[in-house]
Amino acid sequence: MDFLSSLNISGSGLTAQKMRMDVISQNIANSEVTRTENGTPYRRKMAVLSSMAGNTSFRSALDKASAAKTGGVQVSGIVEDQSALVPVYDPGHPDANEEGYVMLPNVNRAQEMIDMLGASRAYEANVTAFNATKAMALKALEIGR
């Protein structure tokens, strides 16, 4: 595996974690939305990350990455969390049902902040790996002088 492949892998991680942070930000921003375009409360969304090598074992993915100079991670999709919505008693709300309950989104802000912290740390790890690879490449060029 050459250093350009390492940069590509770190770059794919940066892209995937940025998308994950964007989805988390969207969840936090819509945590109080009781009516979307289709008339239902907002549902939490999650980014699904997968290997660019596909669903294979670690060894076969490593062999494939070594031979084809590929690898990394990608966002394979954005899925909605189908967990239960949160009922809150507020009879004066325009979206309240006959019993006075409003269905709020299934977004837990504390959980979203924890997920954001994890995505941020993964992003930082990819930046560190990218910079380390870049530093090694520059050092190798200096040795060649």
Your description of this structure?
The structure is a single chain. The protein has 145 residues and is α+β, with helices and mostly antiparallel strands. The protein has one domain (3-143). It contains 3 helices and 4 strands. A two-stranded antiparallel sheet has the order 1-2.
Name the helicity range: 40-55%
Structural class: alpha+beta
**Number of helical regions:** 3
Question: Major sheet, described briefly?
Answer: 2 strands, antiparallel
Total beta-strand segments: 4
Mean pLDDT comes to 88
Strand order of the largest sheet: 1-2
Question: Main attributes?
Answer:
two-stranded antiparallel ribbon, two-stranded antiparallel sheet, alpha+beta, single chain, elongated
Helix-strand blueprint:
Blueprint: H1 3-29, E1 45-51, H2 58-68, E2 73-80, E3 86-89, E4 101-104, H3 109-143
Summarize the model shown:
The chain is an alpha+beta fold and 145 residues long. It is built from 3 helices and 4 strands, in the order αβαβββα.
